[in-house]
Amino acid sequence: MKRIIFTAIFCAAATAVFAQGRDTAKTVTDTIRTKKGTTIRFGAGEDASYIRINKNGDTVEKYHHHSKAPGFSFGITLARLDLGFATIMDHNSFTLQPQNQFLSYRQSKTSNVGFDVLQFGYRFDSSFKIYLSGGFDWTNIRLRDNITIQEHQPVLTYVQDNVDFSKNRFSSTYLRIPLSFDFRTAEDSRGNHFHFVFGPEGGFLLDGGVKQISAEYGKQKFSDSYNFTTFRYGPFMRIGYGAWGLFAKYYVNNMFENSPEQDGLHNFSFGIMLGF
Q1: Long-range contacts of 165-169 (CB under 8 A, 24+ apart)
Q2: Which domains does the chain have, with CATH numbers?
């Protein structure tokens, strides 16, 4: 999974650098074509760039007026890269009840990672659009106790081990499908917007996993559904400026299914994101 995350970050950074390079090249070209005491416009319709030079020729002002026309869009994307913390809430409390203490975890090492790869949407105007996207989402719980969650059990089951694990990770992988309502402000002098995005998100379980490292057994990996809920759903929110922002999402149904003692456990995640 680390390779996937690093690849996503590299692609996002490369895209930003390429876009910046194109903008720099355009600035040089436009400046060469300007004349003193004139205002020159580049672009058609409402999407245009301007350069204004005063009569003395010693001041150059460049600004943009950017507006997208309404319409549908569909394509492959690499957007909304989430890097944050995952938290287990037990009946809306951050404290686990006695029957769930075996899931005690290290908060600083319990993470949520995700990104979108497909998007279909409709833009109403420059300030508002709706889009349905699809991507992947990982929740990695770093367990404190030396336990092993058991595979192929009718309910969530664990055993206590006489092994000191240096890493004991309990994880789930979901296909995420968020429906986003995206509001943004007018473009500022830097060409950026403030974004406010919210909506519902559904997710289909792809796999669950346990990864353990110990001196006795080395590195071990196990794969199973581990009674993670097959379909999860809940609201999310994103807010930010330019390409960067903050996200939060809460799944209203249980983390685990067919496990009565874990009834009331919910997943809450928050952190930073890249790529509106």
Answers
A1: 165/212, 165/213, 165/214, 166/213, 166/214, 166/215, 167/142, 167/211, 167/212, 167/213, 168/142, 168/143, 168/144, 168/210, 168/211, 168/212, 169/140, 169/141, 169/142, 169/143, 169/209, 169/210, 169/211, 169/212
A2: 11-65 (no CATH), 69-274 (2.40.160)
